[in-house]
Recover the amino acids of this structure.
């Protein structure tokens, strides 16, 4: 019985160790969306910084929503700005995810929110 309890504890230990960082421990700063004319096309730029305020290294996932002037979501993507790497405590990772989106007439609002936290 003691062996079963010890094995269960060791199995669940990594889950408990990852529970320390939450969405509230990350922040998006300097988010600057824009549209730039390049020749005959328009390029979307979505730059910003993801900051880890957690006490341990972790990664944050962000969702970018592009809406029209009525609030209808035209495009949405979930991205991990640091890829499959963790961001050290107090550190920042810069992102520009505009290349993931195609310009469409009517784009007027750009939002970035943190949707998940993971330790890789």
């Amino acid at each position: 019985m003691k062996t079963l309890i010890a094995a269960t504890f060791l199995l669940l230990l990594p889950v408990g160790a990852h529970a320390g960082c939450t969405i509230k421990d990350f922040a998006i700063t300097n988010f600057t969306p824009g549209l730039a004319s390049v020749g005959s096309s328009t390029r979307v730029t979505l730059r910003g910084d993801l900051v880890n305020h957690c006490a341990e290294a972790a990664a944050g996932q962000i969702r970018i929503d592009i809406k029209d002037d009525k609030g209808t979501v035209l495009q949405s993507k979930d991205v991990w700005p640091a890829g499959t790497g963790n961001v050290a405590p107090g550190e920042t990772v810069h992102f520009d995810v505009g290349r993931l989106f195609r310009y469409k007439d009517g784009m007027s609002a750009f939002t970035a929110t943190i949707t998940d936290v993971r330790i890789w």
User: Anything to note?
Assistant: The chain has one helix and six strands. Residues 21-118 form a domain with the Immunoglobulin-like fold (CATH 2.60.40.10). The mean pLDDT is 89.
